[in-house]
Here is the input.
Amino acid sequence: MAKEDYKGIWVFAEQENGVLSETTFELLAKSADLKEKLGGKDEITAVVLGDDAAAFASTLYSYGAEKVIAAEHANLGQYSARPYAEVLTALSEKYKPSIFLFPASPLGRDLAPRVMCQLRTGLTADAIDLDVDEDGVFVQTTPNFGGNILSHICIMEKRPQMVTVHPKVFSPISPIEGAAGELILEKPEVEADDCYILLETEKRVFEGKPIADCSVLVSGGRGIKSQADLDMLRELAALLGGELASSRPLVDNGWLPHEKQIGQSGTTTKPDFILNVAVSGSVQYLAGMQNAKCIMSINHVASAPIWDVSHYGAVMDYSKLIPALIAEIKARKGL
Amino acid sequence: MKILVFVKQVPDTDDVRLDPRTGNLMRDGVQSIINPFDANGVEAALQLKAQCGGQVVAISMGPPQADDVLKKALAMGCDESVLISDRALGGADTLATGYPLAKAAEKIGDYDLIICGRHATDAETAQTGPIIAAFLGIPQVTLVDKLSVEDGFAICRRLLPDRYETVKVKLPALVTVCSEINTPRYPTPINIMKALKKPRAVWNAADLGCEPDMIGIPGSPSSNKKIFEPPKRMTETIFFQGDAEAVARAIADALEAEKII
Here is the structure.
């Protein structure tokens, strides 16, 4: 089968408990852009699995899907990697898409590698941009080394060209009421996965406000020397009416939970004000906070990349400055 | 119980730059370490061994110096190590990486559980674990932060952004672990000494029975066309100067001007 025989752009429509993920809509919007760049012939298809998958069709049309392939079976009601991968592999072999996009969500990153492996094709991980080059080749941009290095990845000969795409890098279109499309209903044979049994789901309870929703953040980086120093930043954050956040190293070493991490592999934030303390500013970190309205930084390295995005700052060690700043703010607040 | 742990050698920093002349990664002076999540994987395996008995085999693929991470795994307490090293395996994408690793698991055989880190800190694909599981045809549980074994099943708690999922998975299975699962132990001097006497295999692609068109660059459907440093944004920065007290006052002034306090 020649690669030219593979046509169309597929988006895996991720749904859990009857709700489609936001990234599904982002990928449908980006597919329209790719379609145009590829010459306008590739159909945009959303592929959705579930026990009542066709129910998602009208929503998917309204966000830009021209076609919906709904694979329905009682055993697809609850996600499990192996049955989902079997079904997607079979659908892909039957309909032969050229491009197959997945959200780089926990589910997408669990599922897509198994499909790719069964199809013996390529899968680009966690792309932050998708484009078509001057030769008409589909190109994915991925971050490496925490985003300090970017790569352009291509899948030249094998099809489909599979990609997991980072959430929130593209914007969904405003849904079009009453948009119509073509529905293909598939009823695959699916055996229940007796080897993988979901016993229990427990909602996570978080300390403090989610950092994505905060208007003020104080963020500590690799240069923070101790957990006592981190407590100092927590105190400062509270004084400013905000939350403590961090770059990746302090999460990697276990000082803060993952949900406090700013950046591509953490949370994308857009606060009114952020104070970065001893954060050098890896690209993946900057991507998670550079749209803050006011960025202030404290770092003793004058050449740190954090200065590329900072409005205010001081090139100095934080350990004397932060206590002085806490005292100063307390004094001004009359505390 | 036989547990296989896959470990990868990664640079000890994200602060990697490109050589402006050659466009290649500059690795000089950058220390290499065991991928931190893989160290969690080793610890998880050793804790299970302590509870259930058995054997832990650490496996890595890479150039000869990747042996350093296996020495570390042995010094932490793993029983054996396997280094997969062959020039023919170089330049592999994730598919051509997962394949020889799965072949190694098959060659070792009789495994009950395979443990990988949730992702490696260099390329961050998070694909290797699921690909190994797919090649072996076994179930996988990703992002695990609690792990126990009973009656031929692993009970795994998955750490997801909004919830925990507890999954019962039939062995043999593959799990990928988060840093939240444990704190990796430090090698003790006695274990470092003992590590020198443990069985250590080195296998090449032929030893694993790899199909030549499934490995290295020929076996890699995806290719890296270009590596580059991201374009920089240049914001004008107002720098505060003076001693800590003076800078604190200047910052407080700016916070008032920006209506933060």
In short: Helices of chain A lie at 22-37, 57-62, 81-95, 106-119, 227-239, 248-252, 283-287, 318-333. Residues 22-37 of chain A form the longest helix (16 residues).
